[in-house]
Every structure is written in structure tokens, then in C-alpha cells.
């Protein structure tokens, strides 16, 4: 199941649209149009931050939780944060915190803000029990992304690979 959304073609829309006059409930819009309005209304986060959250959700469903043992595919805030942490390390290694910060994601609360922005614009779903507080200071980025690379060589493939070990034992999942 793929949750990433492609944002191509957004530049074709008028840049001088008055977004405050648009009634989100009655005006039919596609995902790209909704996303463009979201970014205009809340420019705190780079568009890549939103794509990262979609990728983190997909990663969480594949590698953090076991959907076969659940009656639905709902992901809790803490599960998504664990998936986001692991996905960031897998994608960016030692630079994970730097990359996320460059997109405006400075802590777990920012991921919650992004999720609830997506929910507000009907680009992601939620349950009644979900809250921004589910994302509030769950772990420290400084500790979560303080990783040590471990290099290993596979002579049968003549290739090197890298994995990462989180230095702190205070981070969830360790």
C-alpha cells in the first residue's frame, strides 16, 4: 500500500488565488490543490516534510506494526513517530536530524502538526481518539538521531553496507 502523494503540476495554478475565500467543504479539489492551499496557509514546513510523513506512515505500516494482528490499519501517534525515526535514519543516516530540521521538523510535535494539517485538509484520516498531544515531546531529536554507523563487508557480493546504532537507550524501540 502506497501513501505517498505526487505533487507535480501544482505550478500550473494561479499564484494570486485568494485561498481564504475558498470553502473547503463545498469546493471540489484534488489532492494537489488541497496541498497547495495547505502550504500557503501554513508555510512552517517544507513540502518535503509532508512527503516524509507520508513515507513514514508507509514505513510504519510495513516495518513497525504488524497489520495482520489488527482489525484495522490505524496507526497511533507514537507508532508513527517510531516509524518516522527509523525511516529518517534509514534514509539519511547520521544526517537525519539535519535533513528534518531543514524541512522545519525540529521535534516530534512538528510531526503531529504536519499530521493534523493533512487531516484538516482531508489528505489523511484520523480517529476521534487521536490528538496532537499524542506527538508532544515523545522523544528528543538529539538523542533519537545520535547514531553511530556500522559498516560491514559482504565478500560474497563484494559490497559494503551501512547500518546505524542509536547511541542513547532512552529512545523508544530500543
Task: Give a verbal description of the structure.
- The chain is mainly alpha-helical and 174 residues long.
- The chain has one domain (10-145).
- The chain is 40% helix and 9% strand.
- It has helices at 31-41, 47-64, 77-92, 96-102, 108-120, 141-144, and strands at residues 147-154, 159-166.
- It has a two-stranded antiparallel ribbon with strand order 1-2.
- α2 (47-64) packs across α3 and α3 crosses α4 (96-102).
- The two termini are 27 Å apart.
Summarize the structure.
This protein is mainly alpha-helical and 174 residues long. Helices cover 40% and strands 9% of the residues.
What order do the helices and strands come in, and which of them pair?
Layout: H1 31-41, H2 47-64, H3 77-92, H4 96-102, H5 108-120, H6 141-144, E1 147-154, E2 159-166
Antiparallel strand pairs: 1-2
Helix pairs in contact: 2-3, 3-4
Amino acid at each position: 500500500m502506497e501513501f505517498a502523494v505526487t505533487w507535480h503540476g501544482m505550478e500550473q495554478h494561479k499564484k494570486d488565488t485568494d485561498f481564504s475565500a475558498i470553502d473547503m467543504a463545498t469546493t471540489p479539489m484534488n489532492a494537489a490543490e488541497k496541498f497547495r492551499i495547505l502550504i500557503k496557509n501554513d508555510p512552517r514546513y517544507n513540502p518535503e516534510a509532508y512527503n516524509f510523513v507520508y513515507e513514514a506512515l508507509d514505513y510504519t505500516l510495513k516495518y513497525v506494526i504488524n497489520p495482520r494482528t489488527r482489525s484495522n490499519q490505524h496507526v497511533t501517534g507514537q507508532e508513527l513517530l517510531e516509524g518516522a525515526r527509523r525511516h529518517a535514519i534509514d534514509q539519511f543516516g547520521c544526517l537525519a536530524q539535519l535533513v528534518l530540521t531543514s524541512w522545519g521538523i525540529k521535534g516530534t510535535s512538528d510531526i503531529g502538526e504536519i499530521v493534523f494539517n493533512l487531516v484538516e485538509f482531508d489528505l489523511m484520516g484520523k480517529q476521534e481518539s487521536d490528538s496532537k498531544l499524542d506527538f508532544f515531546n515523545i522523544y528528543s531529536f538529539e538523542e533519537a538521531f545520535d547514531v553511530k554507523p556500522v559498516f560491514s563487508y559482504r565478500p560474497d557480493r563484494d559490497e559494503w553496507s551501512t547500518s546505524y546504532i542509536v547511541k542513547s537507550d532512552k529512545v523508544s524501540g530500543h
